[in-house]
Every structure is written in C-alpha cells, then in structure tokens.
Amino acid sequence: xxxxxxxxxxxxxxxxxxxxxxxxxxxxxxxxxxxxxxxxxxxxxxxxxxxxxxxxxxxxxxxxxxxxxxxxxxxxxxxxxxxxxxxxxxxxxxxxxxxxxxxxxxxxxxxxxxxxxxxxxxxxxxxxxxxxxxxxxxxxxxxxxxxxxxxxxxxxxxxxxxxxxxxxxxxxxxxxxxxxxxxxxxxxxxxxxxxxxxxxxxxxxxxxxxxxxxxxxxxxxxxxxxxxxxxxxxxxxxxxxxxxxxxxxxxxxxxxxxxxxxxxxxxxxxxxxxxxxxxxxxxxxxxxxxxxxxxxxxxxxxxxxxxxxxxxxxxxxxxxxxxxxxxxxxxxxxxxxxxxxxxxxxxxxx
Length: 350
Prior knowledge:
It is a single chain. It contains 14 helices and no strands. Helix 1 packs parallel to helix 7, helix 10 crosses helix 14 (323-346) and helix 11 packs antiparallel against helix 12 (296-305). It has helices at 3-42, 62-93, 96-103, 108-118, 125-137, 142-154, 157-166, 169-194, 214-250, 262-274, 282-291, 296-305, 311-316, 323-346. The radius of gyration is 20 Å and the shape is globular. The relative contact order is 0.15. The longest helix has 40 residues, at 3-42. By secondary structure, the chain is mostly helical.
C-alpha cells in the first residue's frame, strides 16, 4: 500500500469516527444521560406515544396518521439523519476489506462483533437500518448485520436503565435474559440460513476504486447519501402513516379485560413486531398500559417486540437482506415476545 493510499484511509477513518462519536454524543449519549436522572427521580420518561393517557388510540383517520407521523418524526429525525450519514459513510469512508474481514465471515465471531458494535449506537430499528444497508454493501455477513440491527435496540443500555427505574428491575432482567439470545442467536441463525455464498446483489464485490482526495470522498459520500435517502425514506414515510392510522385496530381498548390469556399475548406480540416507535418508546407505552390494568403477559410481549423490528424497518432492509430471512427474523421476534409474555404471566409480573 503506497503512502498516499494509507494517508487517504487514515483521513477517511478519522472523519467516520469523528462523525460517529460526535453524532451519537449529540443525538443519543448526552440526552439519555440526562433522561436517566429524570427516570430515577420521577419513575417516568414521558407519555405513551401510542395513545397518551387515554385507554385507546384514536380512531383510524388521516388526522390519526398525520398526528402520529409528526410525533414520531419529531422524536427520531435527528437519529434518522445520523443513521443515513453513517450508513452512507460506511460505503464512502470505510475500506471494504476491513468490513469484510471484521464482519464478513459466517462464524459466530462476526455475529458477536456486529452485536457489540450495535450496543453504543442505541438507535431505534428504523434509524439503524441505513447503517445495516451500508454494512451489507460493504459485504458484512447477514448474521453480523442482523446482530448489529437488533443490538441497537435490545441491548440499548439507556433503555435498560429506563426500564428498571420506570417499570422495575425485574422487567430489565426479563429483557436482558431474552434480549441477549435474541441478538446473538438470531444473528447466528441468519448466517446458517443464508448458506455459504452471498445470495444478494447487495454484497456483490465493489469494483469502484477507493477515493484518495477529499473532493472524491465528498462527491461519493454525497451521491450515496442522496441515493440512500431517496430509496429508503419515501416507503418508510408511507408505512409510518399507515401504521399511525391503524393503531386503533392494532391496539384495542386497554383495560383489565386484557389479561394473561395466550391469545392476548400472541396478538400483542404480533402487533408490537409490526408497529414502529422511537427509541425507548416501549417503556412509557408499557407503563401506561399496566396502569390501565392490562395483564403483565401482553405487556411483556410488547416490551420484547416493539423495539427490535417494525414493518417500516423490514421494508427498508428488503433489498439488503433476503426477504425470507427477514420474515424468519420477524417470526422469531414474535416467538420471543410470546415467551416473554408466558414468563411474565407465570411469575406474576406487574
């Protein structure tokens, strides 16, 4: 490797690391640090974005769709911009050989690395999706990509702390006990299901030469960022609007009549997997539902299925991971939700 290429790689690495550290500090780390003290003092981190203090979500309508999209957008727009910058930055700034070497093999090592790299991100499932797209473009394995994606939400240290202070530390323990096998187990499963050879054009070898000048890097980054934004955001917005309108159908009137029956646990596990929320949004949602008398089983199902995947994030990754694999991951997440609900009902968690 000549000196010019080494210098160019050093500059690109420095820019990406600076963006990641400064961006996450501004969008995630510093705000969540302050929010943890609020959770400890008030045992709350805000109102449920799903239905506020009411016992049911608003009836399906355009107003319900727009109101939810605006509330959700206000909560996540900074993280989404950062996710797009990081996802495009992976492709424009990081050497493909490094990503392939660190996250590209099909063993458990790359899955472990992907999951651990996702922990400090602390992004919601949709904001982490552009980074997954970037990793897949640079030949990260399906398992490492899935583990990174799920690790952002399920092993989010801030959300685990919020859960403990707001709902009780037994809820945090339940989430950790099932969250770790969800992240790393489903990542490992993804590699096994994907076979030995890449099956998607998303991981085809990249023939484009590495940029060396800052001007070349900037042009490539801007092009990738624009392409990624135009491809991912429109379908994402449409699905968020539809889910915002349909939330009254997905989450019916909440009260003591929603008890520990298996069908309620299963229904809320499916609804939680499909619905979209901002980071840590599941904590006030579950708190509000428990306060209205809902059983601990359905609440636990939501705690496990609301964060890791959603219909919009699955759609965003539809061209980066095999659809059959994404469906398998979604079904497995529902299974983890049902298991969490059964355990919460068994131990009488409230």
